[in-house]
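User: I'm preparing a small set of examples for a lab meeting where we compare how different chains pack in three dimensions. I only have the primary sequence for this one, and I'd like the structure in token form so I can line it up with the others. Please keep the answer compact; I'll paste it straight into my notes.
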Amino acid sequence: MKIITQANMTRNPEVIPTQNQNLMIKFGIADNRYVGKNPDGSAKMKPVFVECIAFGGVAQHILNNGVKGSPIFVEAELDYNTFTYENGQKSSQLSFVVQSARVTAKLVSNQAPQQNQNTYQNPQAQAQPQAQAA
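Assistant: Understood. Below is the structure token output for the 134-residue chain.
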């Protein structure tokens, strides 16, 4: 399932070591979802938090440009993982595997956000089979 969304990064990207030395990062994003109206008529919003992972050039772009609070536009695939904690408890998690990303403003401490026009798209995500006319 392909997901396209814009949200804010909830923490700085974390580099995850891999056996084959490819760059992999984990980070979180959050946005508010409309869930109705408050008694006073104002919009009632609920925060939605999602874990994300990215690889290679996409990961490098996010690592170079994204920090906690950065607005980010992502195109991702939905991934479902199951795992077992050390205490034996089983759990599951939905996450985004980011295919392309654009950090829309680079946040720098003690400065105003700077516009960032850089976008990185995974070359493999671009190469999608085309249907041939009969």
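A couple of notes for your slides: Residues 110-117, 125-134 have pLDDT under 50 and may be disordered. The chain has one domain: 2-124.

User: Perfect, thanks.
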